[in-house]
Predict the 3D structure of the following.
Amino acid sequence: MGKSKVNSLGLSREEYKGRPSTLCPGCGHDSISNQIISTAFDMGIDQHRILKMSGIGCSSKTPAYFLGRSHGFNALHGRMPSVVTGALMGNPSMKCVAVSGDGDTGSIGMGQFKHAIRRNIPFVYIIENNGVYGLTKGQFSATADEGQELKYYGRNDLPAIDLALEAIIAGATFVARSFSGDSKQVQSLLQAALRHQGIAVIDIISPCVTFNNDPKSNKSYEYGKENQISLHEIQVVSPGYVEGKEEITLEESAAYDAGEIINVDMHDGTTIRLKKLDREHDPRNRSMAINVLEQSQREQLFITGLIYYEEPRPTLAQLEDVYEGALGTLEENRVRPSQQALADVMAKFK
């Protein structure tokens, strides 16, 4: 057998895995975990610089299944964003990948979701969206299709919440949607999200093969495969980005032979190249992003890709002028004020 491929850190892909999955065989969540592993390996990410966070639900079990050498914390139901906020305020130099579900975000965690976006906490917020509560036997979630019927729970007559639309309205500067069965697109979006200098929300339709695999449901695998409409093809361009591979240029790739190319320059110098397909969409236009999501709701279309992007606004840590490293590494003279400094503070209250 040949020598295993290693990345820029000298690590193999195996070394980016976590524990064996306990989810149902064929679960879309496992596909997402595999794409996170592949992306982190290709990018040469140093795992000890990564925080993995989650709430409660099938999706929130998945951080155990990837990046086994990173830090992890499983929070209360819907409360993951507050824990991420605290962790990144305590050490803004860390990168965070947080996994939530449609219930964990769209129901009990909606307020936390909105305020994490409002505060622009800089982390990758992945929503593994299957439209049901799989951990408690498949009840409808807030993203379930209106009119959908399930054997044990009857008919859902409530309209679905579109979490990508909610993210844009709340002020997120990076919003995307994908399908767990489209590994190439998921990895491209993850690469871009990890380099974004603000909150990056990726709503990934992830079929529940046990409780919500009806072909009529837009959260099923069959529906996703047959009805996915990509807004564009995505290429993240960064010299030397993938160890041992030559950069694919537009001229070399047959996928870019036709269609208009949009270059979206990111904060760190990376460029996302988007090739328009059959729909006109500029992800730098907020009104267009909202319109394309509202249209997809009306016409029951499954739109995927980078939906909205803008230059990052200041994060909460930047606004509060928080120490850029870990608070635990502060020197004593910065942690313990002098007697004169305390006297000066007290004098202000006289």
The two ends are 77 Å apart (CA to CA). The chain has one domain: 13-319. The first helix runs from residue 28 to 43. The CA atoms of residues 90 and 327 lie 6 Å apart.
